[in-house]
C-alpha cells in the first residue's frame, strides 16, 4: 500500500478557544476514520503539531482543507514522506494537550535542536501516542 506521512504545524487563530480545539480533534477523528487516515495531534496554547498518514489522494486534499480552515493560521509542512507502514495505525486521530509549549517539550525530551528536526518531532508524537 502506498501511503504518505505528513507532519505539519499551525497556530490556532486568536479566536479559537480550547473547546473549539477539542472540536477540531473530535471532528478529525470521526472524518479520518471514514477516510482511512490515521495520525496524532499535539496541541498547546500556541500551536498544533500534527502528523497525518494515508493515501496521497486522501491526505493532500485534507491538508488543503486544513490550510483553508479559519481556525488555523501559519500552517507549515515540516515533512512529507512516502511509507509502507503506519506509525499511528491505532489512531484515527490520537490527541494530547500539552501544559507546556510544544517546543519546550521537544527540547526537554529530544534536545535543543528538536524543534527544527521533523524526525525528532515525529519521534515525540510516536512516544506520546504510546504513552511514553
Mean residue pLDDT: 79
Radius of gyration: 14 Å
Strand order of the largest sheet: 4-1-3-2-5
Can you tell me the number of structural domains? 1
Largest sheet: 5 strands, mixed
Gross morphology: globular
Beta-strand segment tally: 5
How many H/I helical runs? 4
Which structural class should the secondary elements be placed in?
alpha+beta
The low-confidence parts are none
CATH class: Alpha Beta
Distance between the termini: 28 Å
Strand content: 25-35%
CATH topology, what is it called? Alpha-Beta Plaits
CATH architecture group name? 2-Layer Sandwich
List the secondary-structure elements in sequence, H or E. Answer: EHEEHEEHH
Helical residues, percent: 25-40%
Amino acid at each position: 500500500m502506498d501511503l504518505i506521512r505528513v507532519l505539519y504545524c499551525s497556530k490556532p487563530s486568536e479566536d479559537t478557544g480550547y473547546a473549539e480545539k477539542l472540536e477540531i480533534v473530535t471532528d478529525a477523528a470521526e472524518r479520518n476514520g471514514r477516510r482511512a487516515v490515521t495520525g496524532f495531534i499535539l496541541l498547546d496554547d500556541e500551536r498544533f503539531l500534527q502528523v497525518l498518514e494515508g493515501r496521497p489522494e486522501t491526505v493532500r486534499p485534507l491538508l488543503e482543507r486544513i490550510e483553508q480552515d479559519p481556525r488555523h493560521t501559519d500552517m507549515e509542512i515540516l515533512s512529507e514522506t512516502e511509507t509502507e507502514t503506519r506509525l499511528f495505525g491505532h489512531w484515527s486521530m490520537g490527541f494530547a494537550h500539552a501544559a507546556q509549549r510544544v517546543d519546550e517539550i521537544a527540547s526537554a525530551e529530544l534536545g535543543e535542536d528538536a524543534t527544527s528536526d521533523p524526525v525528532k518531532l515525529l519521534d515525540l508524537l510516536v512516544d506520546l501516542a504510546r504513552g511514553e
